[in-house]
């Protein structure tokens, strides 16, 4: 049955808008104006439909922290694979007063906006005259309330003064702006923000110009960003203290200087000093590790009055909870260590997560596991001999309590609905995930593993990648294809391998190690220990007449034997460096 919209498109006066009958599709004889437009009725519960791709955003906002709402106009360059009479996108709490598309030839096609047709703010635009295949610009003018629950563009007060800040991850950019709010979409963003005098405005791009409008408000114009996903867009507006850090100077990896600043709530700017002082050393070490210069045009560290998490890795504009960034002489050593580790974590995300992004939320674990792991390596490099060399192992052991439950989830969990996304942010993602990465680094060797990471950065810079892409990069870079099956066995099933290790010396010049595996289960658990096995990157350290050595071997199946030539060892350690994610007896 033809819908009203389709009937009007097919039979009304389309000659003035879609005179495209001379454009054929592929090798068919069917002309463009005979192809039915896309008109999907069922709102998507997870990913938006294929076929509509945003390619750039230009966002113009008016924000006054003293008020309870903001307003804006967004222009989104879009590319359509086919004609669309309906476009699904994301929007939460927006009062859209105008929505239309402008085609390449200047033709305007008006749209009717309908808000929140499904959970997660899935909304729609309906066009009486369908939008043709190709490139066009979608424009929407809207107003929206500030959020008061620390999501999207939210408002917080401190000492009677109002501040604005953003938290977009995972799916709250749609509170700031009607958008295609998914990690697979990476585009340049250009922001212009007006606000009353006396407020700082910080976002992802560098400040290009600052002018006084006729109404007395100050307009801040920012440079266009590199391609980023919507959940990494950042905005902070309010009476923040500013500390100018000058620049991160050029180095052997990065030939350009990076403008560097810190922001804090009013009166707390001096507490930025410790974190700002170590930033250049951290960035320089990470640049050398990735063999890739810091990706973004500037770096701002922003402590906000109230924040739901420890910090958020927004590209070039990292937002922190106050306690995760601000320090003074009274700050305890434990909190200093925690704050600096968080700082290293967010900086590491600038490459892994920002420069290279997951295609979908089922791989967000890789973002967070990697940033957890690289934060410890960074801390060990800039604060050597302070215990950070074993931090990934300690964190992984901390995850084993949850992972030993019958209800434990696998690291790479399927994400079918928006409601599933937040389930991925837990100790299995951060601690177990980081421990698994540490295990493979230990098995492959630091340099070989690093070569795989560097290859991954080059292959997917400014793009998206999934876990298969990552493992292919690690296998290719390290020249160890056998780790792919092993890696998958650890991320695609829950639980902890339990190894029973026996060591004998059947002859004076030879030893034999027998290893069997099962799933670790506590006494009284409903877990069946024999129901699953892993492909384990086994590393066994030993010492004997020939000195200390480590035997590395991929262990699959329920049991295996490892013969040892050249003498019977004095001792055997079944988990070299403690890096293997397993328990043993």
Short descriptors:
alpha+beta, five-stranded mixed beta sheet, single chain, ten-stranded mixed beta sheet, 585 residues, 10 helices, disordered N terminus
Note down, in words, how this protein is organized:
- By secondary structure, the chain is α+β, with helices and mostly antiparallel strands.
- It has ten helices and 30 strands.
- The strands form eight sheets. A ten-stranded mixed sheet has the order 3-6-5-4-7-2-1-11-14-13. Strands 17-18-19-21-20 form a five-stranded mixed sheet, covered by helices on one side. A four-stranded mixed sheet has the order 28-25-24-30, with no helix packed on it.
- The protein is globular.
- The model is unreliable at 1-32 (pLDDT under 50).
N- and C-termini, Cα separation: 68 Å
Count helical runs.
Answer: 10
Strand content: 25-35%
Which strands sit side by side, in order, in the main sheet? 3-6-5-4-7-2-1-11-14-13
* Oligomer status: single chain
What spatial form do the alpha-carbon principal axes imply?
A: globular
Biggest sheet, in brief? 10 strands, mixed
Average residue pLDDT: 93
**Rg from Cα:** 27 Å
Helix content range? 10-25%
Structural class, judged by helices and strands? alpha+beta
List the helices and strands and how they pair.
Blueprint: H1 4-11, E1 52-62, E2 69-80, E3 84-90, E4 95-103, E5 108-118, E6 122-131, E7 134-145, E8 152-158, E9 161-167, H2 173-176, E10 186-187, E11 189-195, E12 200-203, E13 207-212, E14 218-222, E15 228-229, E16 235-238, E17 241-248, E18 258-264, H3 273-290, E19 299-304, E20 311-312, E21 317-321, H4 333-349, E22 356-358, H5 364-382, H6 391-403, H7 427-444, H8 446-460, E23 463-465, H9 467-478, H10 483-491, E24 497-507, E25 510-519, E26 536-544, E27 547-555, E28 559-565, E29 571-573, E30 583-584
Parallel strand pairs: 1-11, 18-19, 19-21, 22-23, 24-30
Antiparallel strand pairs: 1-2, 2-7, 3-6, 4-5, 4-7, 5-6, 8-9, 10-15, 11-14, 12-16, 13-14, 17-18, 20-21, 24-25, 25-28, 26-27, 26-29
